[in-house]
Amino acid sequence: MHRLDQGLLALSAALPETAHGELPDWPLGRSNRALAELHCASFGPDLNGRISCPECAENLEFQMDARSLLETQADLDARVHLGQHSFRLPTTRDLARLAGNLDPSGAVKKLVELCRTDAGGDPDCRADQVSEEELEEIGERMSAADSLAEIRLSFACARCGHQWRENLDLAAFLWIEIEARAKRLLREVHTLAAAYGWAEGEILSLSDPRRARYLEMVRE
Predict the structure, then answer these.
(1) Domains contained in the chain, number
(2) Which of the residues 22, 23, 60, 217 has an alpha carbon 20 to 30 A from that of 7?
(3) 90 and 48, same domain (yes or no)
(4) Over the stretch 167-176, which tens digit does the pLDDT of each residue have?
């Protein structure tokens, strides 16, 4: 699955009262906040990761508290205005439409077109009429309105001293945790089924502490 779909699937499972078709139209900051809340509730607030230095390939470990992301306030219904034009905040659906675009400059212009709310169906209202300076200004105003839309982390390599910034992909981060938890549960099911002959449903119906105690006895 594409990372965008992984994030939507995780949110859909965690928020059954929300229609699945609504989630792709949430502003990116709202989606990232929900993903951070889901990580805190399911796996705790600590985000532990690794990253390689782009200059010397040194492996770096990092940790951050996902709760710090929840302290950010944003007006997710905000509109960005530039001159006579207005733009809504980008959504996951917008990013999905740009997924196959390998030209960064073209992707930015396409995103501006998708988010523009005053075009009124006019085919001449295109982002190629917007200057590079105006595109940058629109991006800055969108970031100010929705600071969680793009989460940038700063790194400094202890080996070569290189400094750089990277985006934190919460959906990918969360999915790695989900996959690890799923594999662990499968191993636990296998161990207890082999030891006691219980069915998968019976094993998964046990509480985590009780299942852990049975596993401890099997290992003993």
Answers:
(1) 2
(2) 60
(3) yes
(4) 999 998 899 9
Q: Residue 51 forms beta bridges with which residues?
A: 60
Residues 189 and 133 in one domain: no
Query: Do both 159 and 188 map to the same domain?
Result: no
140 close to 132: Cβ distance less than 8 angstroms: no
Q: Alpha-carbon distance 125 to 113, whole Å?
A: 8
- Sorted by sequence, the CB contacts under 8 Å of residue 20 that are 6+ apart come out as 8, 12
Instruction: Scan for tokens 């796996």, then name that residue.
Output: 43
**Average pLDDT for 70-98:** 86
Q: What contacts 100, CB < 8 A, 6 or more positions away?
A: none
Tokens of 215: 């596993």
Residue 48's DSSP bridge partners are 63
* Tens digits of residue pLDDT in 92-124: 999 999 988 778 888 888 999 899 988 654 444
